[in-house]
Design brief:
single chain; 8-stranded mixed β-sheet; 5-stranded mixed β-sheet
């Protein structure tokens, strides 16, 4: 009885410990996903029966890119329940070979081993026959040498045996080579073993006052997901007395390779960058020192040129129909915006596979009344380009992205939109305006050589630009041109008095770039003169170089 009592006493704590920390394998499903331009926030939900006391809810097979620091668990139950410290563990990768190919290889290798046994046996038999053939006649008889009359019979016997064994050995070796080739070919062409990437298992400690039914939500941030904006801009130039109008459609291109499919989820698209720093960078002091001789460095690899995004236009359906079809309405995403962020809710429940394929959603379409103008840079291109000035009237910023441009129903190209804050203005281009003619011609060019009393070289140039409006209505035009500038005080550049005063002496904080903006009535033309003079020491030569682009 004492032994039995001791055994019970020893086992009882084990059962009590098991009851206190029961493991519950739970199944969950993805209910909602918030996609940022550089990451995603995934929310899973699960309904479980929780026993009284302590227990561990285990979720297996969550994606490896999951950030353990971002794990958050919330929920509720019919009784008091508390959630402990959530733990994320790494589950190793699982390599699963192709069963069909492996079975075929196993069969071939077994067959090859059997033929090798046959080859070894025939090789031994052949060696034994050859040994008999090399024996002297006196050793072939029982008690006395083999009679000479029996020699031919012995020769025939040995020859026939060698021929038979040789044929069998040749056939066996041929079959073995065929099997070797088949094994080699199968090993070369068989698919690589299917590998399940490493995953994460999540353990959620719970402590319930009584047995109850609980609903939990588990959220976590993952990389490998993003969305980028794309735009459609359709301009109505306002022919036949109408005011110009512009429809700007905002779209979202969503892709993800997180390791788990998003099936039938509520999708939100946020303009906030999840992986951007939360505070301004720490500015470090700089110390000024003498320049030391540079240390040669290995040449860096050239940057890979980025490919321009391609857009495909849908082909129209030319099939004749008897009844007028009802135009299909494209769903849009409602906007939920605050002063610091904006979220678009994708219509309905959506599914996005983790294969990297891009899904496109329409977010919003807004009608604008743009201000039209033409712009020309005749020093580089004499073409006048039509533009539209707009103000972002949405509560959300317009993120940088490609813009497909249409003018009066015709596709005229593709541009790119910079990031535009809510309430900020921006310009969009809509192709060449062939009814505004621009010409730029040189008028004068004067150079002097230094004399004994003048040790300075000069170079003076003058250009005339003519802009003519061939439309039947007024046009606002802007001409952009340039003069050189110098960072060296020994080189001076002066704008001469005969130049037409520019409206903007420096465009976009770019030195030497200036603009003239004016209104042209129907049929009117305007001339712009630009003249400058450069001076530099006679003992030096100068060269015009492109200035570095501002970042």
């Amino acid at each position: 009885m004492r032994k039995f009592s001791l055994a019970v006493a020893a086992v009882a704590p084990l059962f009590a410990g098991t009851a206190r920390s029961a493991d519950i394998e739970a199944r969950s499903h993805i209910d909602a996903v918030t996609v940022y331009p550089d990451a995603a926030l995934v929310t899973r939900t699960l309904d479980i029966d929780v026993p009284a006391g302590a227990s561990n809810v285990i979720l297996r097979g969550l994606p490896f890119p999951l950030d353990p620091d971002s794990l958050r668990v919330a929920g509720g139950a019919g009784t008091a329940i508390s959630i402990g410290a959530v733990e994320a563990r790494l589950a190793p990768a699982d390599i699963r070979p192709d069963s069909g190919a492996e079975a075929k290889l196993k069969s071939l290798r077994s067959d090859r081993e059997g033929w090798q046994v046959t080859i070894d046996a025939l090789t031994g038999k052949q060696a034994m026959i050859l040994g008999y053939g090399r024996a002297s006649p006196e050793k072939l008889g029982d008690d006395k040498p083999l009679d000479i009359a029996q020699w031919n019979e012995a020769f025939d016997t040995i020859g026939n045996a060698l021929a038979k064994v040789g044929d069998e050995l040749r056939a066996a070796r041929s079959r073995a080579r065929e099997i070797d080739d088949e094994i080699k070919g199968l090993e070369t062409t068989r698919p690589r073993p299917a590998t399940r990437p490493p995953q994460r298992d999540i353990t959620i400690p719970l402590d319930a006052a009584d047995a109850t039914r609980a609903t939990l939500s588990v959220s976590y941030r993952v990389t490998g997901a993003s969305w980028r904006p794309a735009y459609d801009a359709r301009l109505d130039t306002g022919v036949a007395g109408r005011k110009p109008g512009l429809d700007l459609t905002r779209r979202a291109q969503v892709m993800q390779t997180t390791g788990e499919d998003w099936s039938d989820v509520t999708l939100l698209l946020s303009t906030t960058r999840a992986l951007r720093g939360a505070t301004a960078p720490d500015v470090q002091p700089e110390r000024l020192a003498f320049l030391e001789p540079p240390v040669p460095l290995a040449a860096s690899a050239p940057r890979q040129a980025s490919k321009a995004a391609r857009m495909e236009a849908a082909a129209p359906n030319d099939a004749a129909v008897m009844a007028q079809p009802v135009p299909a309405a494209e769903q849009f995403a409602p906007l939920d915006a605050t002063d610091y962020q904006a979220n678009f809710v994708a219509p309905g429940r959506v599914s996005i596979a983790a294969d990297g394929a891009t899904r496109t959603f329409r977010l919003t379409t807004r009608r604008y009344e743009p201000t039209l103008f033409v712009t020309a840079a005749p020093a580089l291109d004499p073409t006048a380009y039509l533009g539209a000035h707009l103000v972002n009237e949405d509560d959300a910023p317009l993120l940088a992205g490609p813009v497909v441009v249409q003018r009066d129903g015709a596709f005229v190209g593709q541009g790119r939109l910079r990031t535009v804050a809510a309430g900020d203005g921006f310009d969009l281009g809509f192709g060449a305006d062939d009814r505004v003619k621009v010409t730029r011609v040189p008028v004068k060019k004067r150079e002097n050589e230094p004399t004994w009393y003048n040790q300075t070289k000069t170079d003076a140039r003058e250009f005339k630009t003519t802009v003519k409006n061939l439309h039947g209505f007024p046009v606002k035009a802007t001409v952009i041109d340039r003069i050189p500038f110098s960072d060296n005080t020994a080189i001076t550049v002066d704008l001469l008095a005969q130049s037409t005063p520019p409206t903007d002496r420096q465009v976009g904080d770019r030195r030497g770039i200036m603009a003239w903006t004016f209104d042209l009535a129907a049929g009117e033309q305007k001339d712009i003169r630009l003249a400058w003079r450069m001076k530099w020491p006679a003992d030096r030569d100068v060269v015009l170089q492109p200035a570095p682009m501002a970042r």
